[in-house]
Amino acid sequence: MFSDNQIFAAPLAGITDRPFRRIMREFSPNAPLVTEMISCHSLVGAHKNCLRNFDNYTDEGNVGAQIFGADVSLMADAARILADAGAKWIDINMGCPVPKVATRAGAGAHLMRDHALAGKIMHAVVRAVDIPVSVKTRLGWDDTHRDWADLVKIAADCGVRFATLHGRTRAQLYVGPANLPVIDDSPIPIIANGDIRSIDDVRRVESVGYAGAMVGRGLLGRPWALAEICSGTVPKNIGDVVLRHLEYAVEYYGAATAVPMFRKHAAWYSAGMPNSSEFRIKVNQITDIDLLKVAIRDFWGII
Question: Fewest Cβ atoms nearer than 10 Å: which of 120, 155, 205, 207?
Answer without folding.
Answer: 207
